[in-house]
From TrEMBL:
It comes from Sporosarcina ureilytica. Keywords: Transferase. Residues 3-153 form the N-acetyltransferase domain. CDD domains: NAT_SF. The keyword RNA-binding does not apply. Signal peptide: none annotated. The lineage of its organism: Bacteria, Bacillati, Bacillota, Bacilli, Bacillales. This is GNAT family N-acetyltransferase. InterPro entries: Acyl_CoA_acyltransferase, GNAT_dom, NAA80.
């Protein structure tokens, strides 16, 4: 398996956009449409935000993760953020998500950051069990509780 920048695989932009649209956009009631998501991923970078990574094996995309400058408007002081971590269901439990996170941490460190943040509504224990540190919990207009966690780079 190889982790690489989506930028280097333009033929995978539609597939990544579909995964993220179904898993994160549709489920949150966002007013973004698929075309917005596609345009977003078609313009990700490899050395400035937003950055998207994909896990590839035998030419097949197994999962994805992105790095955003900010993923929570009420916490502008925290940056950058890990977001949209997704592994296709048939490939879960094989460490793909962890490898995507490890590569994300390395990319953030190479960009000169000492910390990486993430927000989660329901996976706090998953991240804490993998070394992430709890920062705070808060509410926003869509979710009752959001946990913010951090990882030193």
């Amino acid at each position: 398996m190889k982790i690489d920048f989506l930028l280097n695989h333009p033929g995978k932009v539609k597939e990544v956009s579909e995964m993220i649209y179904k898993e994160f956009v549709m489920k949150t009631g966002s007013n973004m449409d698929f075309e917005d998501v596609f345009k977003y991923f078609a313009n990700t970078k490899d050395n400035e935000f937003p950055i998207t990574l994909i896990a590839l094996e035998n030419g097949m995309c197994l999962g994805t993760v992105s790095i955003f400058e900010n993923d929570l408007k009420v916490r502008q002081k925290y940056k950058p953020w890990l977001g949209s971590l997704y592994t296709k269901p048939e490939f879960r439990g094989k460490g793909i998500g962890q490898k995507l996170v490890e590569k994300t941490i390395n990319v953030v460190k190479e960009l000169g950051f000492n910390e990486l943040y993430l927000r989660t509504e329901d996976a706090s224990d998953y991240y804490r069990n993998r070394g992430w540190t709890y920062v705070e919990s808060l509410s926003d207009d869509k979710y009752e509780k959001i946990d913010i966690l951090t990882m030193k780079c």
